Amino acid sequence: MTAAPEGPSGLVVVDKPGGWTSFDVVARIRRLAGTRRVGHAGTLDPMATGVLVVGVGKATRLLGHLALTGKVYRATMRLGETTSTDDAEGELVATAPAGGLDERAVLAALEAFRGQITQVPPQISAIKVDGKRSYARARAGETVELAARTVSVSRLDLEEVRRGAATLDLDLEIACSSGTYIRSIARDLGAALGVGGHLTALRRTAVGPYGIDTARTLEQLVENLELLPLDQAVALGFPRLDVGADDARRFTHGIRLPAAGLGPGPVGVFGPAGELLALAEDRGPELRSLCVFVG
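^ that's the sequence the OP posted. Answer follows.
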């Protein structure tokens, strides 16, 4: 019996619209691609917009590695109001006058959120507690104790300040490590200034090397489902190691090669004709495959 031909494989960089869950986007791409083998790297909340990297076919093997790459966001935070979810979708639970805050005080407070920081994730998050999502427990009325985690904020730029009668809105650009909660920064910044705060808008402009300039709206993808081919996706997203024919044959048959020495994390391994062989990483003196794309 002849095996059924494989469907398309590649990455889709989607400009997620507000009001859609990440799973909603995956479901739409499944219909457009005609396959259930679709996933995404790095969840975006429904209120958030911007870059959502979606993998189709063999490209789903890349997603767990892409989810660990850095992210860039444009965010609006409102000081003077605290909500139950640390964002605009929650109930208003406290207010304090913030319209008169000195901008220098805000800039000084922002310093504490640059570099390696410790933050407690929001109650409304997808973290599992005893096998159940934190947001499910919180919506059932439970108070969830979430452990603090260390994340990295490499850039936190205040771009605009808008004053209301009792609130102060801040527009910021934030570059951070995977796992950083922008809602937590808004909450903690407001607490540090003594007025409370929450996130009112969030747009992700980059996931690793995949930027908003290459993203396509769902409407555009309905017209033309553009897939970034697997070899191009790996070459763009990871360091590249080119090997000769002998090493290519050995490596794809499970024989380990010497460490690539290209830094921590995965590298894309390409054969002599430029074909993608595998995603791999150094472990001690050896290069070990994480996922093989040939054979």
